[in-house]
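Why does residue order matter? Because the sequence determines the fold. Keep that principle in mind as you read this record.
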Amino acid sequence: MKKRIFILLAIYTVASAYVSSLFYIEGLAYSAPSSDMLDLSTVVLKSCYNELSEEDYEFIYSQTGLGRSAVQSLDSLERLYDYQESYFAEIDFRCKANSPISCEERVRDSRILLAPLEDGDILVTNASHVFSWRNGHAAIVTDAENGKTLEAVVIGTNSKPQSISKWTSYPNFAVLRLKGADKETRAEIAKTALEYLDDVPYNVFIGLYPMKYSNITAVKGTQCAHLVWLAYAAYGYDIDSNGGLIVTPKDIAESELFEVVQTYGRETPRCVSRPQSK
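Structure:
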């Protein structure tokens, strides 16, 4: 009898700890802006005269989540008001299963705005988890004009093109862009990814078995972050910030090779600088 009671108490303790951990990690799916919502009219007016300073770009970033390159790519700085409203708006998100062992958070009735994207841009989020571990998700933009990414989506499916619009329903994300590389180079990386990494089986153990790096023309398995990493590794860019056996979305988000084009629902990824002055 005592043994049964002990086993039941152990099961109850483990189950309670697991449920508590799920409640805890749900709070990590979204972080509200750390600053108050302030008036943008001064910087919008200054932009008409090309007088934006480094401090102005920092202010815009704090109010919209947009980095310098995103701001400069807007067709009108009046759009900053729309991004600010989106950035500060309250959201309602729900957690749902996307495989037998993993879940992800999605925003209901999302009005989140994405910055103008370019081929080769990388999107990362931590709004997915396996049990109570936030493994996150990553994608590479392969056709910005037509709103397409390439992604290893989930266990049991092969990698495939996805609609960029799905990223506006994650409660947090970051858009990253390779520093020091021209638009043509980044587009070539995206083209190579689509050519060789589409329709590749999902392998959650890639990096442990087989090893992380393989010739991109003969890859046998991948997962979301590995797919993005391998596309860049094929061109000599190691975007795994800690160089471990397994690459994760967090490792990519912390790579110093990137500038931040946009963040939403999260702080600026550690070690990632914002766009440099031109």
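Confidence is low (pLDDT under 50) at residues 12-21.
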